[in-house]
């Protein structure tokens, strides 16, 4: 069944440090490309944040091309959740492209996915053995030396994100 | 006193005489304590278990007074009754859980408590260092609580966990064995 699917989920920390990036077929090997995309989305977060009274749900951030679109969610603590949607779905890659993508993807379609992501992140934080401090870059160290802060290695969280990315379809819960 | 009667008492006290606190406050506080102990003892989990048991012992010695005052129950006739009292009244009024009492030894001196839910361990995942899963008993404080409180009512017991869902086991089970009754005063004969 073709249709919009999640291509990439990114969890980005307060200091724009990547906490976790998950890729989904057919993009599983495109880590560098998607890192760039996520990075460019962070600038949009910055711009939107300056506007007054923004909601947590930032909706569509950026339509990258006719196929990929980035949606964002910003928590009050500064953690950014990003979902890049593939509007054609994985089946479209091998076959010839079938007409224009489904245009009717609304912002609210992503809401269940963001909510599920947020609760997965909350659950991670409530685990006493997870220490958020390990995932904050040391002040004074530039963003270039990313090795100073680790990404999330908790297997349950990673599995949760994977499940959300794989099961999400427009208009259904996750 | 039967187990059902004990459940009723526990339920009644829980509803009428207990001040409630937010469960997440308890869970997060306890989780922080254990995580901090693990850090302080450099992940020597045997020492952490021991320390938790000791902390529990000190809690139990005080908690028993509160328990007796709130429940108003008298002396138990035998160890089986004690077990029901612990599971259905004690755990009920302090943690709002009622573990199952089972696996009695033939001499009625050992039993197991099976915890279907454990409010202390909500949200918890043991550290992924290859040892915590085999060595740390996260809820070990409960063993100490039982040991401390029963000692104050003339029972020397030994309690330890034998399985924990946090380690990937199917159940959380605590084994409790009666070592001896302290003082010469013996309880009435068992039926």
TrEMBL record, chain A:
Record's protein name: Sedlin
| Domain of life (superkingdom) | Eukaryota
Q: Which GO terms describe its cellular component?
A: cytoplasm
GO BP term (any one): endoplasmic reticulum to Golgi vesicle-mediated transport
Q: Which InterPro entries match?
A: Longin-like_dom_sf (IPR011012), Sedlin (IPR006722)
UniProtKB/TrEMBL annotation, chain B:
Q: Could you tell me the superkingdom of the organism this chain comes from?
A: Eukaryota
* Pfam families for this protein: TRAPP (PF04051)
Name one cellular component (GO) term: TRAPP complex
Entry's InterPro entries? Bet3, NO_sig/Golgi_transp_ligand-bd, TRAPP_component
Alphabetized UniProt keyword annotations:
Endoplasmic reticulum, ER-Golgi transport, Golgi apparatus, Transport
* Protein family: Belongs to the TRAPP small subunits family. BET3 subfamily.
Q: What's the name of the protein?
A: Trafficking protein particle complex subunit BET3
This chain's source organism reads Penicillium frequentans
